[in-house]
Design goal:
alpha/beta; Rossmann fold; 2 domains
Amino acid sequence: MDDGGPLVTTLSADGVQIAYGRIGQGRPLVVVGGALYDHRRWLPVARLLSQQATVYVMDRRGRGGSGDAATYTSEREVDDIAAVIAAAGGSADLLGHSSGALLSIQAAETGLPIRRLVLYEPPYFPRGVEQRSSDLPDRLFALLRAGRLDDVVATFLLEGPRLPPPAVEARRGTPMWQEALQCARSLPYDIIIQIAFKFDPSLLAEIRIPTLLLLGGASPPSMRMGTEAIAEALPIAKIVEMPGQEHIAGATMSGCSSPCVEHHFIRVPIGLAPSFPAP
């Protein structure tokens, strides 16, 4: 897989080194990916976005070129985002996918200098809909300690995005599975982020940032429910559906035509700007 060239690093608040790729010239845009992959999976999208932005594609902690700490909280990942924004010049647009979208919401709630948000299917599920087992992170950590990386990935896919067993088995041994194995250490983090996320309409109402929520047309109905709930709580938000796309957008985006990607990731946010207060 194309690695996009050498990575740059910056230090997070707890001293962990956070790596990122930098592509393009223009207004800073930080990409916060979801589970299973490092920054390389987002490089095709980053190159399209780089036509109008300087794109900073993070390796979240515990994967790729970034370091890690002995203990984990999602707040530390918000600190990581803050460090990359600082390295990008002090303010930036933010694009978050899945658990990265939840982190992006947390970053906005803490008041980081974010000009505009693009969120692809933050995995928030209203009460009673597809709740994840609270012991799943501990079981994933136990599998990691036992060195059972294949089982970590399989368990995550079965109980996180809840892929059917035949779909999980079909992925074993593929290049994408090998990429996921390299990021297995961080998979408990993505579940912790999801379980710990607090849907607080009063906090979301304080996010006065123009926000575009992207929804995959082929994603399950539960994704739509959570995305719509978040969009309704945000004061300046719009949902755009991406036909044919599934939840793992970074992995499937190469199958989407360039005009479609350009429309949803570049033209739509810019086109929305006149209806938004100046960021």
